[in-house]
Structures are given as C-alpha cells and as structure tokens.
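Annotated sample (chain length 191).
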Amino acid sequence: VSGTDLVEKVLQKNYRVFLLGSSPEVLQKMQKKYKNICGTYSPPYTKKWSSQENKKIINLINKAKATILLVGVGPLKQERWIIDYKSKIKTPIIIAVGSAFDILSGKTPQAPAFLQQLGLEWLWRVLLEPKRLLKRYARDAIGFMRIAFARVLWLRLYSQNISIKSILFFFCCFPQYFFCFNFHFNIFSFL
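Output written by the structure step:
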C-alpha cells in the first residue's frame, strides 16, 4: 500500500484526523475534500523548527483531539520529528506520509498505475521535480549501494552461504526495496 493510498483510506473513514505539513492552500483543499479533518497546520519551511514552533504545533495537535496525525513535511524530517515529539502528542496514531497531501489535493499528479505496480513511483517524482529530487535520490542510491556492498562483503568474509546471484535475484524480484531508501536496513533481514 502506498502512502497516498493509505492516507486516502484513512481520510474516507470516520476518524478525527490532523494534517501537519504542506502549504496552506493544499491543506485548505484537503479540508474541503475530506470532512473528518479536525485540524491542519502548515509549518514554516525550515530545516529545523524552533522550540517555540514545536510547542505551538504540539498544542494545536493536542487541542484538536485527533485520532490520527498525518505528518507530511518531507522524508527524514518528518520521521525525526515524530520520534522526537511523539511522547508529547496525545494522538494515538502518528503516520509520516511524505507528499500525500499534495497528491490528494491535486497539486501534484499521482504516478500512473503501471509505474505504481512496478514500484517506480520514485521515477515519476523525479520526472516531475528533477531539480529537487534527482540529487537526493542519487545521493541515497550511492549510500544504499555502499551499505549493500559492505553487507555482502561482511557476509562473504564470515562465510554466510549467500551469493551475488541471490542478491541480484532479490532486487530483480523486489525492485521497490532497491529504491525505497528510507528502509534500506530492512532489506538485509531477507538475506
């Protein structure tokens, strides 16, 4: 299930949902489209929010008494923020959703179904925003390959019964894991 599909399913149910992220215009469109949104906030576009800003965000979320908090402020930043502040948020379910708000509001087109099925939504995103995403994805791919190579080397040195062919087979069968950089450590649990 893609993040966008998950968000859409959540917003179609009768949960009280708070949206954190994206632009005020996108959040306004989302509130018009989905009636169970109990609060939204578009934080400033900075690498890291001040402690005052974080307190403001947490107060808004807690006052809304949401069942689910959807955080869409970009990869790594959203995950780090959730980890740092989840203990102060009274919402029982918190989900990092990336660019789902932009896609569901119609600001950004969703990848065609065939690309989604092939696990190539990342390619669609690069084609839409090459200046912003190409550098990030290239950096992540290089980092991933370094980790994969180190893991294969480690397995070879410690005589684990694994071959290069089995790793290539894995990536051919499950290409979405190759390109899902945020979860690169999970791949090695399959090997």
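Annotation: The first strand starts at residue 17 and ends at 21.
Annotation: Residues 179-191 have pLDDT under 50 and may be disordered.
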